[in-house]
């Protein structure tokens, strides 16, 4: 990157419905990188200068750097939402001269590019709906990787079951569970109800997912179990 004079930074965007593992993925990424997450609420950022100060603080004061996290970024501010057709990005010169102005997408984009922030900056943004974000915010080169968090496939269900129950799941039971129908959080909380009941059979545990019970019904069952 230095040889090519490209900014040394990492940008990720996670999207998917609630409960599919976006927050958990952020924690896993931070653990892998050996960096702490720093959650930024753009609702409390009024000017371009305030946003840059947050970026600089994390870069300057955090051991091994930190990870700037913008969860549900489209809910926090309208700045990142799609602009009208024909809208263009400002030049770096124009952006730097507007540092004291109200927060703008152009300034935010230049920060994410690495042109106005420290080397080694890492950021992660999440959204439930990728179409809620301006296309320039998530274009290649600005965001290095866009990851969709989906409902559970067979591999995910298998891993969740085996981690919680500490045994292999019966392949025939696993094959009976439909893929991409249940959210990660639903599967985890449901199976966790059996963590101290090792005598329960695989079929007994996974029955609600096999019988075609509505996902919302399982979620309500999980909530009742936790509250009790």
TrEMBL record:
MF (Gene Ontology): ATP binding; ATP hydrolysis activity
TM annotation in the entry: none
SUPFAM superfamilies: P-loop containing nucleoside triphosphate hydrolases (SSF52540)
Domain AAA+ ATPase: 8-153
UniProt record similarity statement: Belongs to the AAA ATPase family. BCS1 subfamily.
Protein name, entry field: AAA+ ATPase domain-containing protein
Organism: viral metagenome
Record lineage: unclassified sequences, metagenomes, organismal metagenomes
């Amino acid at each position: 990157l230095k040889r090519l004079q490209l900014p040394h930074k990492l940008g990720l965007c996670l999207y998917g419905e609630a409960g599919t593992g976006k927050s958990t993925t952020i924690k896993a990424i931070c653990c892998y990188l050996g960096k702490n997450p720093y959650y930024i609420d753009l609702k409390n950022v009024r000017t371009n200068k305030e946003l840059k100060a947050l970026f600089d603080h994390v870069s300057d004061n955090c051991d091994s750097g930190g990870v700037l996290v913008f969860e549900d970024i489209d809910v926090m501010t309208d700045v990142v939402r799609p602009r009208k057709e024909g809208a263009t990005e400002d030049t770096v010169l124009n952006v730097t001269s507007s540092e004291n102005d109200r927060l703008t997408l152009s300034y935010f984009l230049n920060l994410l590019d690495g042109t106005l922030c420290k080397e080694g900056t890492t950021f992660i943004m999440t959204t439930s709906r990728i179409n809620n974000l301006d296309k320039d915010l998530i274009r290649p080169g600005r965001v290095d990787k866009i990851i969709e968090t989906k409902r559970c496939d067979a591999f995910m269900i298998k891993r969740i079951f085996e981690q919680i129950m500490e045994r292999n799941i019966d392949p025939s039971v696993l094959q009976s569970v439909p893929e991409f129908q249940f959210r990660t959080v639903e599967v985890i909380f449901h199976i966790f109800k059996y963590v101290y009941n090792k005598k329960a059979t695989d079929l007994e545990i996974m029955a609600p997912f096999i019988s075609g019970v509505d996902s919302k019904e399982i979620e309500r069952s999980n909530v009742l179990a936790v509250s009790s």
